[in-house]
Specification:
alpha/beta; Rossmann fold; globular
């Protein structure tokens, strides 16, 4: 299984966290990363998105169908992200468009074996794969693309 973690692009400040919109810079970040994803996307890509406006806008830049999952909003925990995509046993690939700190904590758990406060920058994409070698399950880091490198 491939798992792509995409943190929403830069958003405006605001009191209602779920209604915060992308800034002009965030729109450019989302557009640039969306192009990179479309150019490199794995087959059978399932896209799961937080209900927050900024994640919906970020995912919308892909111009591909996606599903909204309210359980992976700004206050999500790692187990909710794992459940939403079926890691590591689901077939194909999943792209999660979500938030810190859950995305960084998930990356830490999968790559280092325990949750830790790793930071995924706004608009960045982390691509992980799961494989079995000699009977051992491994997580492989395939790519880390900051938003400024996608364009």
């Amino acid at each position: 299984m491939d798992l792509l973690l995409w943190r929403h692009a830069e958003a405006e400040e605001g009191e209602d966290d779920l209604k915060r919109r992308l800034t002009a810079r965030g729109e450019r970040q989302a557009h640039d990363m969306a192009k990179w994803i479309r150019d490199h996307q794995p087959r059978e890509l399932r896209i799961v998105v937080s209900p927050a406006v900024r994640t919906q806008q970020t995912a919308g830049a892909l111009m591909l169908p996606f599903e909204t999952n309210r359980k992976i909003g700004p206050d999500a925990c790692v187990s909710e992200l794992i459940a939403a995509v079926g890691w590591p046993t689901a077939t194909g690939a999943a792209l999660v468009v979500g938030h810190q700190p859950a995305l960084g904590r998930l990356a830490a758990l999968l790559l280092a074996g325990s949750e830790s406060d790793w930071t995924i920058k706004k608009g960045a994409l982390w691509w992980l794969s799961n494989r079995v070698r000699k009977g051992e399950t491994q997580t492989v880091l395939r790519a880390v693309i900051p938003a400024e490198f996608a364009g």
